[in-house]
Amino acid sequence: MKSNEWEVIKAAKEAGIPDPGFEIDKNTAIVITDPQNDFLRSDGVAWPIVKESVKENNTIENMSQVFKLAQENGIKVFISPHYFFPTDKGWKFGGALEKFMHSKEMYMRKGRLNMEGFENSGADFLDEFKQYLEKDNIILCNPHKIYGPQNSDLSLQLRKYKVQKVLMAGMSTNLCLESHTRQLLEEGFEVAVIADASGSAKLPGLDTFKGALMNLRMITSHIFTTEEFKEALNEAKL
Amino acid sequence: MKSNEWEVIKAAKEAGIPDPGFEIDKNTAIVITDPQNDFLRSDGVAWPIVKESVKENNTIENMSQVFKLAQENGIKVFISPHYFFPTDKGWKFGGALEKFMHSKEMYMRKGRLNMEGFENSGADFLDEFKQYLEKDNIILCNPHKIYGPQNSDLSLQLRKYKVQKVLMAGMSTNLCLESHTRQLLEEGFEVAVIADASGSAKLPGLDTFKGALMNLRMITSHIFTTEEFKEALNEAKL
Amino acid sequence: MKSNEWEVIKAAKEAGIPDPGFEIDKNTAIVITDPQNDFLRSDGVAWPIVKESVKENNTIENMSQVFKLAQENGIKVFISPHYFFPTDKGWKFGGALEKFMHSKEMYMRKGRLNMEGFENSGADFLDEFKQYLEKDNIILCNPHKIYGPQNSDLSLQLRKYKVQKVLMAGMSTNLCLESHTRQLLEEGFEVAVIADASGSAKLPGLDTFKGALMNLRMITSHIFTTEEFKEALNEAKL
Amino acid sequence: MKSNEWEVIKAAKEAGIPDPGFEIDKNTAIVITDPQNDFLRSDGVAWPIVKESVKENNTIENMSQVFKLAQENGIKVFISPHYFFPTDKGWKFGGALEKFMHSKEMYMRKGRLNMEGFENSGADFLDEFKQYLEKDNIILCNPHKIYGPQNSDLSLQLRKYKVQKVLMAGMSTNLCLESHTRQLLEEGFEVAVIADASGSAKLPGLDTFKGALMNLRMITSHIFTTEEFKEALNEAKL
Q1: What pLDDT, in 10s, does the model give residues B16-50?
Q2: Which of A108, A173, C80, C211 has a CA that sits 20 to 30 A from residue D55's CA?
Q3: Count of B–D CB contacts within 8 Å?
Q4: Which CDD domains has this protein been placed in (chains A, B, C, D) (predicted)?
């Protein structure tokens, strides 16, 4: 699909909101948030609330396509996963969805130095993505803890590889993807989003993908679809 | 008004999203973003795009009420303003609304050490608020530069006053207020929002207040209206 | 020993540098950096350069004592470890000791999700400390990557446990301990140091422990020895 | 002078500490901390404690030379000043030198939006530097508040100008210059220091310049003297 098939993108254009554009070059990397079972597998903790958006966007196929295109074009992909550990249960306060995640044991692992039970758990990566994750272009980062990368090493990893421009994809659009986007902007990265390689909660009266798309259109340099990203690679200076 | 008059808040309740609640105590402060003419005065650069939301929410009266209640109850208010300076025009890239703000000279000042022309400019505070701003409970912070407080001293100021819990208000809901909220959460503050003491862009097909309200309901501990904030003060442990 | 047996501490007192003091209370936690074999075991990568300081300070016994006193008094201990992973070898630049650490494969692990070969490696914790590490008062954090906690979740973990005051200990005094101290100060923590539960490189013409002690005395609220820390616990409000 | 005239630099070489080197290119900028009267003018609050080091290093002439060379070569200079405001007196805790600075009203200004009494005050820039400060290559940043740039917009300003490599100079070596250096390293900047365009407290038993030089030699990519910086410009890729 094309990004202008989204009403929000059309409306933004009609409203005259600038669209700075985003040129993919050798200092560009992809950041993928939460490519994990608890969002994307049918028995995942958050699947019931994101499945409608994931199906509409064709998120899993598009994320796979992004991984594949990155690998073929030698573009680095930085994975920012979400894990919780037993000591996180001792936290003394938290916002609404933090309460949800903790009550459902979302992304739960046995310990930071304990991989027991990780494989195929809700915290593990979706099987469809695993073929791409062991490749040389993949950098797995420290887990983030709320929604943004402030408490992980993502930004340092990007800078140590001389990355200046970031394409965002992954789950979920209005939470971790958007918080990552907002943080990377404050740190002086140039950011665009591959929006249909993402998805988020859709419940009656709560279309969070639409809400996120408004914000992301306003704060980033450009919104791509996966198809448009693929086309843009033809003109990329890699 | 009551927060449950907003459809989003009703929908969140029906969807079973937890509502952790927020108790106001002596470690609670208010953070107000961008209480400035370029948003809130009829000749302000962004007034045409936010005026509908500002009128619907009764934002100016509610912000004034928040300032007044804070002063009466000895609650500290931290102001996070938005200023641009001539050297910021040299920035080599930026997202969509950064382009908008720079092209319109929004929040523009002559220099960091130059107050010439500031008074009553778009960067100055709204006249209605000035009676509250010279009081002892007000701490004015370094300006933020994109949307969040990452490049200001807001968080340090809060911590140096032993603040652990924050009530957010100010302009605009989906940009600076939301980015401040997201950052404060990552830094381990407990955060709630006084949502109708805020407002944001509303354009055909782009109701950013509604979008922000979804996100804020999901990530913070509670959504207040100004009226509910006033009621909550009766039970506050100050 | 007493802190005033250190020349630097005496000199600071004579110079009239203020000593704000540090009262241990229920919002106080201990942060320990790098309690790992590569620093503290005789075959560790950095042992040859820190051993003199470690012996002089009696660092291992003092760190053990700090762990023991914390456990007995119910004080939380946050561990900030240092790990490198294979992808970190791809970093395109680094300072002098980053080069040293990478060339020596200091703190090396096989992968973030791979514990193979970790046990008893240079990256593992010193055996003497392991009896304390599985206890309820221990929170292990994401690894830091250069010297400070900016790229870990230490600060969030502290805040989520409502910690406002921090006692620093661990390796090495002028690098990770000092960078942690400096960062925690900027984030609005009140910080003191248990200086002889630490140690650092000592080479001809380069007494880094002494250098660090000067800085730490100037920037923190107080310098304790382990003995003084033990005494202070008698008056602590826990 | 040459950097190898410093004992610490000689000792580091003899100890085999790597010296990665630092090539000046078009993505390189200079960051100068606290070029202000309270450090560098004979009636400045901190002059009595830094004057010995400032004279030994020829700091004022060297800082002037750095400003001049930057201007001649079109290298951007980012100034990170230190200011305190009346509300900062309400801070509820602080480390030793924070107490010192507040008690002496160091860097004091009347308000963030009040320039009254600023000119020629301790917070103002040293007269010798003013001829360079109004030029196009100068970017003045938000003030820092403790010692590092974490609560200013320095890092964002650098990134918005696509700066990846930083040369540090300014006052004082072991406090603001070193905290800036440590923070910039954690954010993935490549950092070197022009060490004799800096100076710091020197009191009986407390040679903080020497202590800082040890740390800076260990954590950065290279230590220049001003003379060596001038020579390096001949081979710079600007």
Answers
A1: 999 999 999 999 999 999 999 999 999 999 999 99
A2: C211
A3: 76
A4: cysteine_hydrolases (cd00431)
